[in-house]
Amino acid sequence: MSVQNTHLDALQDIRKMMQRSSRFISLSGLSGIAAGTWALIGAYVAYDWMNEYYNEYQNHGSFTGSSFQQLKLNLFLLASAVLTLAIISAFYFTWRRAGKDNIPMWDHSMKLLTINLLVPLITGGLFILSMLQQNDWHFIAPACLIFYGLALVNGSRYTVTDIRYLGYFEIVVGLINTQFPRSGLYFWAFGFGILHIIYGFVMWWKYERDSVSKND
Fold first, then answer.
1. Is 139 in contact with 128 (CB distance < 8 Å)?
2. What pLDDT score does 18 carry?
């Protein structure tokens, strides 16, 4: 019986080694929670700015070109700040978990994951910039969600499979948003905020909770 258990343990060790060599498994659920929190804060600030912009129309009966250009610039800078904070948070929490697991952060699987994430993200980013140039705001939020979801699905083969389901949800939310384009900010907040927090908590519960309790 002990010999059989030894063989089973050896097989499990081999399986873990093969998984680590082909997949980056140290993504932290806390990074998802942090990204979702930043997204919700950014959505709240954007909502306040857009309300102020539309209040100008009610007070003056028309929009001014300068105020619209200023709103576009403010929203672009806000989105850039949210993205930067999300990336920094993801790097920090993933680096911390990789250190606890004694796994190098920038290995071959991480490089493949990054490449497969960046191709849809860069494509989507250029597409969204083209829409901004044409002053077409209606489908910017759906495009953000859809291309981000495609990036997650594309990169999921090189990390934990849970990220694929988040990608599916982002795509579905983006497609639904195309039917309600005037509610883009709400869908954006739900997709990048609420879904990220739920995903992050699930990831933490499945993969990190036990390690925290052991340390305690």
1. no
2. 43
Question: In degrees to the nearest 10, what's the CA dihedral of 23, 24, 29, 31?
Answer: -140
What global pTM score does this model have?
Answer: 0.82
Give the span between the Cα atoms of 22 and 27, in whole angstroms: 14
Partners of 96 in the beta sheet? none
Tell me if residue 139 falls in helix, strand or coil.
Answer: coil
Per-residue confidence (pLDDT) for residue 97, from 0 to 100: 83
Rounded to an integer, what distance in angstroms lies between the CA atom of residue 159 and that of residue 137?
A: 33
Residues of the chain with pLDDT under 70: 1-26, 57, 59-65, 210-216
Spatial contact of 171 and 149, defined as CB atoms under 8 Å apart: yes
End-to-end CA distance of the chain: 33
Burial status of residue 15 (CB atoms within 10 A of its CB: 0-12, 13-18, 19 or more): exposed
Alpha-carbon distances of 183 from 55, 124, 135, 137, rounded to whole Å = 17, 20, 17, 11
- Give pLDDT tens digits for 120-156: 999 999 999 898 888 788 899 999 999 999 999 998 8
Residue 52 CB-half CA count within 13 A: 12
DSSP-derived secondary structure letter, 205: I
